[in-house]
Amino acid sequence: METMAEKKLYEGMFLVDSARAASDWDGVNSTIKKVLDRAEAEIVSMRKWDDRRLAYDIKRTSRGTYILCYFKAEGRKIQGIEKAVQLSENILRVLILSTEQMTQEDIERDTPATKLEKEKEKAGMKQAQKAEVSEQGDQQEEPTAEQAPTSDETLTTEQAPIVDEAETAENVEQAEEAGQAAETGQAEETKKPDENKETGEAGQAEEIEAEEPQDSQPKVSSDD
To answer: Is the overall model pTM greater than 0.90, yes or no?
Structure first.
């Protein structure tokens, strides 16, 4: 009866063609998982490590993508994993190391690829913020003619005809008063000649009346 060997933590660096990884990332990951499943390995973490130009061509490939994988497996299964990689058409190379002293924090540490992705995300957020600020600035700097009139402007515009009507009514009223005053003045001037004429006629009448008593008594001639 075979006893179950204790599984240890291993670090595997798998190398694949960059062109294949770019066109079929899920397929590449699926191939690696199948190799590890055959060895009854338990995958702890698997992610892209980096894209690099190869020092020399491997299977007519000059640029490769490295995939970092942490898994637990029996020691005697490691040789079978390496052999399966050699026979695979999708995996170029693999390097497997024992990492018993590796902590979970070390496993989750950022890789060059994840650092680059985070930097791109930050750059994208900054550009989006700048674009938003620029758009807000453009909206604030729009010509005044295109802006809707404020409440004060609307109120002034609505009040303007009322003010003009009030001023017109006031001018008409003043003109009427001036006309009435002119008519009154003319009437008074017209009355003054009549009064003068009456006064003159009265004076003349008085003079005539003063002269009349002298001739009022008829002279009587005496024959004696």
So the answer is: no
